[in-house]
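I hope you will forgive my troubling you with a question about protein structure. Here, with my thanks, is the record as I have it:
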Amino acid sequence: WQTENGVLLPSLQSALPFLDLHGTPRLEFHQSVFDELREKLLERVSAIALEGKVEERYKKLEDLLEKSFSLVKMPSIQPVVMCVMKHLPKVPEKKLKLVMADKDLYKACAVEVKRQIWQDNQALFGDEVSPLLKQYILEKENILFSNDISVLHNFFSPSPKTRRQGEVVQKLTQMIGKNVKLYDMVLQFLRTLFLRTRNVHYCTLRAELLMSLHDLEISEICTVDPCHKFTWCLDACIREKFVDNKRARELQGFLDGVKKGQEQVLGDLSMILCDPFAINTLALSTIRHLQDLVGQDTLPRESPDLLLLLRMLSLGQGAWDMIDSQVFKEPKMEAELITKFLPMLMSFVVDDHMFNVDQKLPSEEKGPIPYPSTIPEAFTKFLQENRIACEIGLYYILHITKLRNKNAFLRLLPALVETFSDLAFSDIFLHLLTGNLTLLGDEFALEEFCTSLFDGFFLTACSRKENVHRHVLRLLLHLHHKVAPAKLESLQKALEPTKQSGEAVKELYNQLTEKLELRKPSPAEATETPSMELPLPTVPTPASR
């Protein structure tokens, strides 16, 4: 039996006793020969998949699969069967069903085979994708609530290319491969989840996924996605954090080029523009344009570039409504936004310039002119009723905070208590605001500043919005040493978690309490410390000996 089933090499028979002398079992020898042969077979399968005419090579592989598939559950043969299936562009339906029905086989097969299973099994594909989407949202929220508060490294700091290297985007890109059907399924999942949760991070993933496939030059998908060129152009703007004139004209060309009967593409374009990274770029560009217009004595309605930015902001902000209602047309822009609200913002910029100039003039008998403290009622109304105005207004407030303009900040802060959809209490705005407030660190020692910021703004929403509670605690963890002790004590009481508070709030509050405990002087130090100056004995120097 051994002779019949052994390796039939005449020269081997005389050599085998040497292995016996070395105490090497025959099993070990046969196992190593088997492994070697398997490696050779795997290499040959990969080579067959690339050589000869297409029909011939696949015919060979199909025959090989037919012969070997019955052994697919044998661990030693399984890699060969899986390798053959991996190289077949279309595995027979019957075999796919058998793989799908067996959990272990499904787990062991290559992603190329899984793609063939997924494209006809949306539910199974959804089960694979769902944990990745959850992980993605969690990663974004962890960045927004990170304890590292910095004006230099914030949520929007990583470049688009860096973000696309993230684990989730890379895994999804690999799962999709060049399969348009799977790509469409993922987009459908993202649209559905965006509708269900209103979470804008799904819009970011929509854009990142398309650009990740673009980086890999997967033309099979990029050429059929009508948003590809628009997203590519916008991606370059996001990288620069500014929409320049050349790119603005390109983007406008895409929007104007949406033909009758193809309006549905507006739903996808609006989702791309709803990505917080796109909104951030458009809003920053809008503020920059407004400042330029002040210098040029030009009104907003006379700037086509500014009007295009507003058009894209409006399309992005209207994404949810458009996809929900399935009415694919651009939202109508309110004339008052351009004729009243933006000039009002420009007047704030002028107020700052006038105040700064006045400070430099020699003071006359009438004394210095105080900084304007009131805000027009219309400004507050716009922030409450108009989404685009609210977004631009919030970015203007971030802008003045970054410039350390305390007067302008305190003047406009009361308008943030009530805003459209509570945008002033959204995580992205609070993440950026807390970062910019670190530049005003020294102002936290002043009672008036803290009262306006905490009592007048943050604490108005802490009890009803847990995310605000978290952001305030993040800020205090970073700046507690700057706040006046009496104010800090009252804030500590006001921010104490309730029974309903989540774990994250309790954890942050405990961290803050620990930090404050460490700063408190110990009772021994608090009492008058005795003088430490003891008379030192005179030590003769070497020279005086």
Remarks:
- The radius of gyration is 33 Å.
- The chain has 30 helices and no strands.
- Residues 524-535 have pLDDT under 50 and may be disordered.
- Residues 10-120 form one domain.
